[in-house]
Amino acid sequence: MKKNNLKFWFFLAPALLCFLVVVIIPIIVGFFYSLTDWNGLNVNCGFVGLKNFIDIFTRDSGFLNSLKFTIGVSFFSVILTNAIGLVLAILVTKKFKGSKFLKSIFFMPNLIGGLLLGFAWKFIFTEIFSSISKLTGLTFLNEWLGTTETGFFGLIIVNVWQLSGYMMIIYVAQLQQIPYSAKESAKIDGAGKVQTFLKITFPLLMPAFTIGVFLSIANSFKMFDQNISLTNGVPYHSTQMLALNIYNTAFTNNEFGLAQAKSIIFLIIIASIGLTQLLITKKKEVEM
Question: Which CATH topology does 23-283 take?
Answer without folding.
Answer: MetI-like fold (1.10.3720)
